Amino acid sequence: MPKQKVSVEDILKHSLKLFRQKSYHNTSIADIAAACGLLKGSLYHYFPSKEALMSAVIQYAHEFFKKEVFSIAYDTNLTPQQRMEKMFKKSERALVSDGNIMGNIGVETARAIPEFAEHIRDFYTEWMGAVEFVFREITNEEDAKKLAEQTVAEFEGAVMMTRIFKDTKYIKNAYERLLNRFAAFSLSNMKS
Q1: Which residue among 14, 30, 48 closes a domain?
Q2: 73 and 18 within one domain
Q3: Does residue 2 register a pLDDT over 70?
Q4: Do 118 and 164 fall into the same domain?
Q5: Distance of CA 154 to the CA centre of its chain
Q6: Do 37 and 76 fall into the same domain?
Q7: How far apart are CA 113 and CA 125, in angstroms?
Q8: Angle in degrees, CA 135, 84, 108, rounded to 5
Q9: Helix, strand, or coil (residue 183)
Q10: Going by C-beta distance under 8 Å and a sequence separation of 6 or more, which residues neighbour residue 68?
Q11: Same domain assignment for residues 121 and 172
Q12: What is the pLDDT of residue 99?
């Protein structure tokens, strides 16, 4: 028997899980309602459309990363290398085990639903900004920006390869290259 009330956060959590598992287009409002213990029509009391729900899910995931991952970049109690390591280890756990909602939804819907693309761009802009902030401590601003773009793109590609081949070596290799790149720039900055 369906529940009468659930929290918005419960709906977002269930929706996020379903969108990760089945994709946006293959997940129906009925699927989400059932996962939340609601009748299909009851879900519309919380969100007026599937698009509105997906926008809220993207923002919910973004807030998680902002609080739990990106904030690490600005923790000056850690060394720059510790921040980078911690940030990407935490990203790995969230993206590999649960599925990459931003990458998946971005690829699936960017052209069809521009509103999603805007939210996803905001997410990646903030992620690159956090990585750039750490790199700026060991290199110049221009190189830090390029390295941040390269690092996030490489890590995203490694997440995709890990999921396709069901082999974590792609993430491990990307992580190792990140640490080597970071160490090389740190060393060259110390010599300057």
Answers
A1: 48
A2: no
A3: no
A4: yes
A5: 14
A6: no
A7: 19
A8: 95
A9: helix
A10: 90, 94
A11: yes
A12: 65
Identify the H or E element spanning 15.
helix 8-22
What is the DSSP-derived secondary structure letter of residue 73? G
* Closest by CA position to 42, among listed 67, 89, 10: 10
List, for residues 121-177, the tens digit of each pLDDT value.
999 999 999 999 999 999 999 999 999 999 999 988 988 888 889 898 998 899 999
- Tell me the average pLDDT across 175-192: 79
Last-in-domain residue among 27, 48, 69: 48
Which among 114, 99, 124, 111 is positioned nearest to 15, based on CA atoms?
A: 99
CA torsion sign for 181, 146, 84, 87 is: negative
- Tell me the residue range of the domain where 18 lies: 1-48
The tally of domains found in the chain comes to 2
- pLDDT tens track for 41-100: 999 999 999 999 999 999 998 999 999 999 999 999 999 999 999 998 888 877 766 667
The region that residue 6 occupies, defined by phi over 0 for left and psi between -120 and 50 for alpha, beta otherwise, is beta
Q: Mean pLDDT over residues 3-26, rounded?
A: 88
Measured CA to CA, the distance from residue 152 to residue 159 in angstroms comes to: 10
Question: What is the torsion angle, in degrees rounded to the nearest 10, for the CA atoms of residue 94, residue 100, residue 103 and residue 108?
Answer: -160
How many C-beta atoms lie closer than 10 Å to residue 121's C-beta? 13
Q: Tell whether 42 and 64 lie within a shared domain.
A: no
